[in-house]
Design a protein that fits this description.
- It is built from three helices and two strands, in the order βαβαα.
- It is of the alpha+beta class.
- The chain has one domain: 3-Layer(aba) Sandwich (Aminopeptidase).
- It has a two-stranded parallel sheet.
Amino acid sequence: RTVRATHTFVNEDYRGQGIAAKLVDALIEYCTAEGLSIIPVCSYVVKLAQREERLKKLVKQD
């Protein structure tokens, strides 16, 4: 089972506060708990997957 991370959006008024990182962190926790892998489509999630080990481990390999 997989989750497609297609879009991470934070309203302009709230950007720069680490909210996007918190959203992805919640996704990582959820997928870890549920045994799901992640297909990163969103450019933000793709970038994080390159440097965040917890996320990298969940990325579905082709």
